[in-house]
């Protein structure tokens, strides 16, 4: 069972051999292959399925990293395909140059100053007068919002600056945006 053959007929023959083994033989195979005792509750069917999967894994490779990450998340209780998008009704608040800007998420986009926009970037551009990544501007995505990045904001007035120790670009956090749900 330790050979790594990709020959389809060889793999099928090994799977057929595994299926023909009894429970005691499967337990002995488990001990020799995995160098541990099999769980006592494992049935013949479950052990057969495990060994068939193990043979195919050895021949064709294991689960890729993305699938392994997904499976680990599911094992921890994460919801499958958890949606990280903002839900309608979420309110984003951002202060810029002393003005408070409130954006509400709606099914068709975002409402700011009684107008609906398709993207946060369009709102950020209207607020600042320059092109901005909207999620970054509202603090929803990591990025370097430094005072020199935001035209018209004096150094030290930006809410997102980490004031601990020496200030480096790497120590700058995104702007503090309140998310109300």
Summarize the structure.
With 181 residues, this protein is α+β, with helices and mostly antiparallel strands. The protein has helices at 8-20, 23-34, 44-60, 65-76, 120-128, 134-137, and strands at 91-96, 99-106, 109-112, 115-117, 178-180.
Task: Explain what the structure shows.
By secondary structure, the chain is α+β, with helices and mostly antiparallel strands. The chain has two domains: 69 residues, no CATH class; 90 residues, no CATH class. It has six helices and five strands. A five-stranded antiparallel β-sheet has the order 4-3-2-1-5, with helices on one face. The longest helix is centred in the first third of the chain and has 17 residues. The two termini are 55 Å apart. The relative contact order is 0.09. About 17% of the residues have low confidence.
The averaged pLDDT comes out at 77
How many domains? The number is 2
Q: Give the radius of gyration.
A: 28 Å
User: Residue ranges: pLDDT <50 for 5 or more in a row?
Assistant: 145-174
Content of β-strand: 5-15%
> Which class of secondary structure composition applies to the elements?
alpha+beta
Overall morphology: rod-shaped
Features of this protein?
181 residues; alpha+beta; 2 domains; five-stranded antiparallel beta sheet; 37% helix; 13% strand
Write the layout of secondary structure elements.
Layout: H1 8-20, H2 23-34, H3 44-60, H4 65-76, E1 91-96, E2 99-106, E3 109-112, E4 115-117, H5 120-128, H6 134-137, E5 178-180
Antiparallel strand pairs: 1-2, 1-5, 2-3, 3-4
Helix pairs in contact: 1-3, 2-3
